[in-house]
Design goal:
By secondary structure, this protein is of the alpha/beta class. Helices cover 33% and strands 23% of the residues. Strands 1, 2, 3, 4, 5, 6, 7 and 8 form an 8-stranded mixed β-sheet that branches. The chain starts with a strand and ends with a strand. The mean pLDDT is 94.
Length: 195
């Protein structure tokens, strides 16, 4: 699994996200952090505490935005699967293990999970479940994007085949656009456990 983390000036949050990758029970992963022209302590964090042989850092000279940064990670990915993790999110330890087992069973192109959304007041709610279970991803996604970006593991070849993230899409819908294009190519698997 190639774990792709785009980041821009979020050194104070990034460590928590990266620690959640290291804590995964599935250990066959590489970590690709795309440092999108950060001017804070991101570079020193990546060279220091999180430096390891499974971490690759891609530096951009100017801020390109998350879609472009993720595409740089997809281009560099060596794994059969890509997993996306935003720099302000974190995973529970069995996320990758459960998703890869599910993908191996049925040949789906994408697996996603429910997730816990915490607001600024500390209120937590479960989100990310299909609105019409059993209807199919394309039919569900036409109604709205329910898939959290940081919950996705997808087949690298499938993501590349549909052109990865569209960098011309407005921020916050570029992931929805990619899920819609992937839904035309194969099935999705939803894990209802928040991971």
């Amino acid at each position: 699994v190639s774990v792709i983390v785009p980041t821009h000036n979020r050194a104070r949050l990034l460590g928590r996200a990266l620690a959640s990758v290291r804590a995964q029970t599935l250990t066959d992963w590489e970590l690709i952090v795309v440092n999108d022209a950060s001017t804070d302590d991101t570079a020193s964090l990546l060279r220091g505490e999180f430096a390891c042989d499974r971490l690759r850092v891609i530096e951009t000279r100017r801020a390109l935005g998350p879609a472009h940064a993720r595409n740089l990670g997809i281009e560099a990915a060596r794994g059969e699967y890509v997993a996306f993790l935003d720099d302000d999110d974190e995973w529970l330890p069995r996320k990758l293990e459960l998703q890869l087992a599910t993908l191996a069973e049925g040949g789906a192109v994408l697996a996603h999970t429910a997730f816990l959304h915490t607001d600024r007041h500390g209120n937590t709610a479960v989100a990310g479940l299909p609105p019409l279970p059993g209807a199919g991803p394309l039919r569900d996604l036409v109604r709205g994007n329910y898939i959290g970006n940081s919950t996705v593991v997808a087949r690298t070849a499938a993501v590349r085949a549909v052109g990865s993230f569209d960098t011309d899409m407005p921020f916050v819908i570029e992931d929805w656009d990619l899920w819609l294009r992937l839904a035309r190519t194969g099935s999705f698997v939803a894990i209802t456990e928040p991971l």
